[in-house]
């Protein structure tokens, strides 16, 4: 187990800044997911930590030790890529024991370590198969076992599940999390999949334009986003026109509700109120402020789409039994429950 720190890390390519004086700290045995749109710098940061890319400025520390100038091979890190990158002419067992073999371990120890790890990832019975004889999910589990075979201080995962189908992806992400917790390996996981990040991470870092907008536990990230970008990037968010009343309240949907501390900084007058679908209240009401346009059945919950006056569309989550009475064309009243809300500059 080891801590990982990146301090003031910057990187530019051909005058384009990919990372901007970024700081990140990971605790021992912690799993952090990096989430953000394409081109935000997630993979660049991971590759700088791995030692594949040299930062323009900043330092990388592992266990308090400065490794910025160390080559990748000297950093005791395991890495799993989106592409499985297995040696096609080697069996699963030989792929996994490759790292220990290069490190000069005796053959008996190599085989013992590889066998144990293949068993951990549920592939003991496939040890003699070649990559082309295994499914994508099985190949990625071999790649994971290979990365762990060298007993890395840090495990780096670069979108390892994006090439797999949904069912296999779900199974494998749960297996990766269980394995990571069992081994206690400090892990950085890059993904573009919000559900994936929120479901397995101890903390999630949301990146935008080479900067970390927020690093927090999944529940905090969802319920208390630090910026409007985080609020809208993670999950579904409604934007409802409102007007600030001083710095502590905002009027919207005919009500005055409190504003989350600091989110109104630098704003005045007309703003957008940011509210999640489960944060709105809705009732069937003749002459209400909205008309149901359509519904999306999600099991026990149904997402009701409503067109408000002013051509504003919102989504409201309701128990499916309640939403049954809200067919398209139904007049409804949408309101805010009085809880503190986020505000952002009016679009």
What does this protein look like?
The structure is a single chain. With 347 residues, this protein is α+β, with helices and mostly antiparallel strands. It folds into two domains: 225 residues, P-loop containing nucleotide triphosphate hydrolases (Rossmann fold, 3-Layer(aba) Sandwich); 110 residues, RNA polymerase II/Efflux pump adaptor protein, barrel-sandwich hybrid domain (OB fold (Dihydrolipoamide Acetyltransferase, E2P), Beta Barrel), CATH 2.40.50.100. Helices cover 25% and strands 35% of the residues. It contains ten helices and 20 strands. The strands form four sheets. The protein has a six-stranded mixed beta sheet with strand order 6-7-8-3-9-10, with helices on both faces. It has a five-stranded antiparallel beta sheet with strand order 13-12-11-14-20. The protein has a five-stranded antiparallel beta sheet with strand order 15-19-16-17-18. Strand 4 and strand 5 form a beta hairpin. The protein is elongated, with a radius of gyration of 24 Å. The two termini are 46 Å apart. The mean pLDDT is 93.
Give the SSE map.
Elements: E1 4-13, E2 16-26, E3 31-35, H1 42-50, E4 57-62, E5 65-66, E6 77-80, H2 92-96, H3 98-102, H4 107-120, H5 136-148, E7 154-158, H6 166-183, E8 186-191, H7 194-200, E9 203-208, E10 211-216, H8 218-223, H9 228-233, E11 238-245, E12 249-252, E13 255-258, E14 270-275, E15 281-284, E16 290-297, E17 301-308, E18 312-319, H10 320-323, E19 331-335, E20 342-345
Parallel strand pairs: 3-8, 3-9, 6-7, 7-8
Antiparallel strand pairs: 1-2, 1-4, 4-5, 9-10, 11-12, 11-14, 12-13, 14-20, 15-19, 16-17, 16-19, 17-18
């Amino acid at each position: 187990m080891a801590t990982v720190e990146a301090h003031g890390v910057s990187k530019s390519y051909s005058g384009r800044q990919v990372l901007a004086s970024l700081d990140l700290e990971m605790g021992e045995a912690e799993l952090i997911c990096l989430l953000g749109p394409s081109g935000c710098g997630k993979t660049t940061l991971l590759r700088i930590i791995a030692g594949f890319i040299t930062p323009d400025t900043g330092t990388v520390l592992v266990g308090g030790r400065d490794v910025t100038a160390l080559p990748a091979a000297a950093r005791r890190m395991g890495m799993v890529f989106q592409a499985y990158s297995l040696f096609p002419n080697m069996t699963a067992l030989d792929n996994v024991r490759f790292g220990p073999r290069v490190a000069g371990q005796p053959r008996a120890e190599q085989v013992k370590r590889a066998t144990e790890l293949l068993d951990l990832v549920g592939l003991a019975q496939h040890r003699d198969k070649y990559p082309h004889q295994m499914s994508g999910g099985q190949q990625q589990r071999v790649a994971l076992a290979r990365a762990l075979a060298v007993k890395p201080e840090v495990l780096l995962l670069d979108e390892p599940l994006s090439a797999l189908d949904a069912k296999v992806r779900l199974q494998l992400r749960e297996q990766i999390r269980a394995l990571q917790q069992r081994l206690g390996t400090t892990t950085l996981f890059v993904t573009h999949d919000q559900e994936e990040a929120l479901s397995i991470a101890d903390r999630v870092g949301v990146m935008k334009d080479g900067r970390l907008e927020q690093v927090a536990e999944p529940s905090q990230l969802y319920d208390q986003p630090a910026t409007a970008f985080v609020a809208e990037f993670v999950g579904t968010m409604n934007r409802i026109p409102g007007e600030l009343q001083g710095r502590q309240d905002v009027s919207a949907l005919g009500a005055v509700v409190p504003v989350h501390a600091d989110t109104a900084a630098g704003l005045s007058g007309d703003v957008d109120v940011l509210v999640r679908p489960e944060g709105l209240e809705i009732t069937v009401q003749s002459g209400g402020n909205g008309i149901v346009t359509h519904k999306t059945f999600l099991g026990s919950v149904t997402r009701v789409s409503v067109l408000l006056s002013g051509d504003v569309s919102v989504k409201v989550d309701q128990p499916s039994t309640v939403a049954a009475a809200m067919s398209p064309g139904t007049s409804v009243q949408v309101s805010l429950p009085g809880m503190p809300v986020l505000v952002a500059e009016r679009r």
